[in-house]
Specification:
homodimer, about 400 residues, Alkaline Phosphatase, subunit A, 2 domains
């Protein structure tokens, strides 16, 4: 991983940084709506905060690139999102709170239905019930045994999806998917791109051969496919890099997983943003960096629910005073990417960002939204540099050079 | 060449991108003109387009760097213009539509006049007529023979300029110019920087010795000088990188040449922008990326002809509706660099850019010019990232990471 200048400039202080991340915050004009969701929302608290502070616009990865949640958050946390990108297998493991070790290779499982000739008939095994998935995983765990002390783990996700982890010495993670992404053809044989990955492929092959027999009497999920192979990777943590005591107050598995990958402690699952703020208040003295994650802004955007997204933003705005009451040294309000209701998906559009702190240079922006933030004092910049500003404004960076 | 993230995210679709490139578009205020050429021009069609879309400003290479046409266009096409830069020899070959092979090294020729002592008297051989140049090249082709099966090609450009190509196995392209760039001294001996280029130098030396004899009876062009040696280089094409079907509708050899280097099909030479648009209409169904090149904006700027450049811009504006009538999914209007009439040359100043597409985030810019575009939603960015935005807005990029 690239070494970062700011890592060398960090000093430990008791100043506190809060990242309030509204997932998918950025939006677009949509049909009869001549303004974006954030422009439409009534956000008196955030507007007041903008008026006395500074703002800008974040490019999550690079111009035009739409990120998944992984790259979106790695950027916010100060990592190069391309360099830090990980396979789906590892992200799934993180999402399931499965603690990977250095000896592990992870992949995503799709339970599938093969026809009598061994060709794929249904790539999702009729989207079988999660309970059925659990029964199948249990059956495989019970009947499959690998050689040479290599272990495997299977953990149900949901419906036809599960996590597969292979644990052993010297296993590489560069394997092609066994899922051919089409029906009417057989699944693919696992293939490794190098000697260590070929070693992994050998055990995966053995696993699959046994699985085929074990599942042969199943009517629906009579086989499985593996994709997104990835070796566990240890990230230098936020605590190591920036001398922070970090706490993630996030409710969804994916964001809890990513937070764990970068070394945060994780709050218990909470009901909503209000109870998340309860948790913030309760743990305020213990940490110096809080990651608060709000999912509703993304979920409503993904649903194409413009009004719902406006409401979700307004709900967050109403709670901002409770965060301010803790007097954080730095409060950042932004998103990991845009999720315009008009597109019903993540997008590449820059994300407005608000930074409130003692030593900001106040700019001329008076309300928090996409177009205003373009004129802000931070300009347009890549998410991976956000942590620089947060640390600087929190007084945690010493001078560079004499 | 650096690998690019977007290359891995591209999917082939039928959506259509049009790049309307006004060469040298950016300008400056000049003398009694308090505004730039683009600000002075009456451009109702482009202004209307800006009002419903987004814009920004392009830095062609890096801040303060004035590009030639090569780097200017490589940037627009999504290549790192520094990394993609090529010797004049190869650019000349491209401009002359000379198809270089992997075994070729190209250089530019200046025919020159030596005095009785063998010192340079005129570096341009009195700017001899193009027909004379053709006669000289024919004479050299007829009388010079190289050893070991190495071939050479000479192709007249104009006046004292020509193209020299050496073709053989294992020839390197890193040679110093033989043109000392001054008179009263002898030409320089060809020198290679490495073994492969020294091999090239050996044949070049042989060529030059024979040429000296062959031309000894010439009154004007009694010798020649070589510069800008460069080995042929194969570029990964736009079609390979971005899964586009590309078509260049450009009339000048240089731009046709660059387009060919990046794998575009090339339209027949056309009379003017109106006939170029005829060609666009004729071929609309066949391609997914169109490069339309307008030279008049640069030519008038180079002439210091402020009023002429204003007129050239207005002429283009009048034809924009015909392009819009084809309903491109993405229309980009910009330039490869600035050519301010006030400077009579290319310059480093950012170039205004307009991007019209379905999923743009509309910004607040209401008229197309240099200063307004600074406030646009795309911000100020390097030309090499323009293709990211074009592909994203055309729906040709998948999400990065999970």
């Amino acid at each position: 991983m690239a070494s970062h200048l700011i890592d060398e400039l960090c000093v430990e202080t008791e100043s506190k940084i809060v990242f309030l991340i509204l997932d998918g915050l950025g939006g677009l004009q949509m049909g009869e709506h001549p303004v974006t969701e954030l422009e439409a929302a009534n956000t008196p608290n955030m507007d007041k905060l903008v008026a006395g502070n500074t703002c800008g616009a974040l490019i999550p990865v690079e111009p035009g690139v739409t990120p998944g949640s992984g790259p979106g958050h790695f950027g916010l946390f100060g990592y190069d999102p391309v360099d830090a990108n990980i396979g789906r297998g590892v992200l799934s493991a993180a999402g399931l709170e499965f603690e990977l070790t250095e000896r592990d290779v992870a992949a995503r499982v799709n339970l599938a239905t093969l026809d009598a000739d061994g060709n794929i008939k249904d790539r999702r095994a009729g989207r079988i019930a999660t309970e059925e998935n659990e029964r199948i995983c249990e059956k495989l765990r019970k009947h499959i045994h690998l050689s040479d002390g290599v272990e495997f783990f299977l953990k149900t996700e949901k419906e036809h999806r599960a996590l597969f982890v292979l644990r052993g010495d010297g296993l590489g993670g560069d394997l092609e998917d066994t899922d051919p992404q089409q029906v009417g053809v057989p699944t693919l044989d696992p293939k490794g791109a190098d000697a260590a990955s070929e070693k992994t492929a050998k055990y995966v092959r053995d696993f699959l051969q046994q699985a085929r027999k074990v599942l042969s009497d199943e009517p629906q999920a009579n086989f499985l496919m593996l994709r997104g192979f990835a070796k566990h990777r240890r990230y230098k943590t936020l605590n190591e890099r920036f001398k922070l005591k970090t706490y993630a107050i996030a409710n969804y598995p994916m964001y809890r997983g990513i937070s764990r990958l970068v070394g945060m402690e994780i709050a218990p699952v909470s009901q909503n943003l209000s109870t998340q703020i309860d948790e913030l208040e309760r743990t305020w003295d213990k940490y110096t960096f809080f990651f608060m994650h709000v999912k509703t802004t993304d979920a409503t955007g993904e649903d194409g629910n413009y009004a719902g997204k406006v409401k979700a933003i307004e709900d967050v705005d109403a709670l901002v005073p409770r965060i301010l009451a803790r007097k954080p040294d730095v409060l950042v309000i932004t998103g990991d990417h845009s999720t315009p209701s008009a597109m019903r998906s993540h997008s590449w559009h820059p994300i407005p960002i608000l930074l409130a702190a003692k030593n900001v240079r106040r700019d001329r922006v008076m309300a928090f939204n996409e177009n205003n933030c373009l004129q802000g004092g931070l300009g347009i910049f890549q998410s991976q540099h956000l942590m620089n500003y947060a640390l600087a404004h929190a007084g945690k960076l010493i001078k560079f050079g004499a």
